[in-house]
Amino acid sequence: MDNTFLLGGKTALVTGGGSGIGRAIALAYSREGANVLVADVSLDGGSETIDLIRSAGGNALFQFLDVTQPDDHLRAVELAQKKFGELHIACNNAGISVGPSGTYQSLVGVDLLDWTRILDVNLSGVFYGLRAQIPALLRAGGGAVVNVASIMSQVAKSGLGPYVASKHGVLGLTRTAAVEYASQGVRVNAVGPGYIDTPILERRDAATREVLKGLHPIGRLGRPDEVAEVVVWLSSMRASFVTGSYYPVDGGFLAQ
Q1: Domain for residue 203, yes or no?
Q2: Backbone dihedral angles phi then psi of residue 170, each to the nearest 5 degrees
Q3: Nearest to 67 by CA among 110, 13, 1, 23
Q4: 137-146: average pLDDT
Q5: 68, 169, 238, 244: which one has the fewest Cβ atoms less than 10 Å from its Cβ?
Q6: In 3D, which of 86, 4, 95 has the Cα closest to residue 37?
Q7: What is the pLDDT of residues 89-108, one digit of tens each?
Q8: Which residues of 113-127 are buried (b: 16+ CB within 10 A; e: fewer)?
Q9: Is residue 255 in some structural domain?
Q10: pLDDT at 3 (0 to 100)
Q11: How confident is the model at residue 201 (pLDDT cuts 50, 70, 90)?
């Protein structure tokens, strides 16, 4: 095992690794010596992430994965084991904030298709991931899972009912898995990003971006790499006594 890097000799799987926070996590995992399986519904985005990792000298593979499909998670885990030997780390990052309607509505007005889609991706997607990943981590002798939750895992915002419910649920799954598998060497934690400067926010107008910046006492949007650094730490043995925890990466948002 290569001990030069935090994750030397490890294999990591990242869902939603084709852009934004997921891409930053995949790149950070690779920088710290891990083999990385990048999973995403976007072939182009996933391929771009793979190219970035390989151009930096890392080792990575892409796997198509729709997080709402349990068998896709199983296939991703099987590929990681087949190509890299074992799976040691998983980051369930894929998520959405709006459903097919593309709108935000109060609870009574929520489109049922939006409710179903957001819960399927954000909550069931994490459950299916844990269901496939934990047996592989146990086979490897232990490991770490990091679920990407949200600041909305702790608070609520009008018009975001399905998203808030799904991200609160992610914390419940995280804590349950942590308690159930701690004695077997599997650690499960969550991070809660604030508003992060990803391609989704880049499409917002300047006035909206200024409002979002102002929500954080630190006075700016977060960067994907800032979330990735916390994820890497939680995935490493430097966090060996940390499980069932939630770490905001929010510029002080939740401290208000």
Answers
A1: no
A2: -60, -40
A3: 13
A4: 98
A5: 238
A6: 86
A7: 999 999 999 999 999 999 99
A8: ebbebbbbbbbbbbb
A9: no
A10: 58
A11: confident
* In a domain? residue 211: no
CATH number of the domain that 96 lies in? 3.40.50.720
Q: Which domain holds residue 72?
A: 11-196+225-240
Catalytically annotated residues: 163
Distance CA 47, CA 31 (A): 17
Q: Do 148 and 91 contact (CB within 8 A), yes or no? A: yes
Burial class, 205, CB count within 10 angstroms (exposed 0-12 / middle 13-18 / buried 19+): exposed
- Both structure tokens of 82: 């087949």
Annotate 12-34 with b (16+ C-beta within 10 A) or e (fewer). bbbbbbbbbbbbbbbbbbbbbbb
pTM above 0.90, yes or no: yes
Is the pLDDT assigned to residue 205 strictly greater than 90? Answer: no
Half-sphere exposure of 83 (CA within 13 A, CB side): 19
Residue 1 lies in a domain: no
